[in-house]
Structures are given as structure tokens and as C-alpha cells.
Fold this sequence. Notes:
Elements lengths: L1 H18 L2 H5 L4 E9 L6 E2 L6 E7 L2 E9 L5 E3 L4 E8 L2 E7 L4 E9 L3 E6 L4 E6 L8
Antiparallel strand pairs: 1-2, 1-3, 1-10, 3-4, 4-5, 4-6, 6-7, 7-8, 8-9, 9-10
Amino acid sequence: xxxxxxxxxxxxxxxxxxxxxxxxxxxxxxxxxxxxxxxxxxxxxxxxxxxxxxxxxxxxxxxxxxxxxxxxxxxxxxxxxxxxxxxxxxxxxxxxxxxxxxxxxxxxxxxxxxxxxxxxxxxxxxxxxxxxxxxxxxxx
Length: 140
């Protein structure tokens, strides 16, 4: 019976470590992300059923950018002219995204990042949940 309990404990530890491994999360950040929901610390959550624009994140060697893009019906994107610079750091076993623009600086902590989902929490306690964006594909 002790062996089964020990085995279950080891499995749970491995699962919890894998989910919050900052290096593993980092490899999933690049790409197009569509916001699904914003949770506020005040309980004023907001869901998004349709998004005109999506976020594009590109990070290489712990630096990169995020920009808004407008998906077009032919599967291409129109880029916005603004970019937020990103510097990635691992602090206290969590992945931190440090953003900067000419007007502001802020940090988001990655809570979840995998091939399908991205969830981040900002300095004000707001949690942003994204899903991987699927391009519009219209065929003849």
C-alpha cells in the first residue's frame, strides 16, 4: 500500500512541475493568440466571443515583441504599426514577460502556456486567457 501511495505522489509531483516549467512554457509563446476572457480581481470578468484583432508574439533568445494584427479573409494579416518590446525572464520558478513601449512598462506572469492555451496575470491582478488563433481559410 505504501508503494502505491509513493507512486501517486511521484506522479502528481511530475505533473505539477511539468505544468509550471518556465522553459517549457517559453517554447509555446510564439504565434497568434486570440483572447477568450479577462478575469479581474473585482469579479468583473469579461468573455470575448469575437475578436477583430489578435495578438502576435515573437520571441527569440529571451527578447521579442507583441503586436496586434487584423486577420484577413484570404488567411493573411494586416499588421498594426505598434509593437510592445518583450524581455523574458525566469524569476522564482515562473516565466515573466517584461513589456516596454515609449509610454509604459509592465510585467505579466505566465500562468499557463502550451500549444493551445496561454494564460497570463499582470501587475494589477488581471488574468488574460487566450487560445491559439486559427487562420481563416476559405477554399474554392
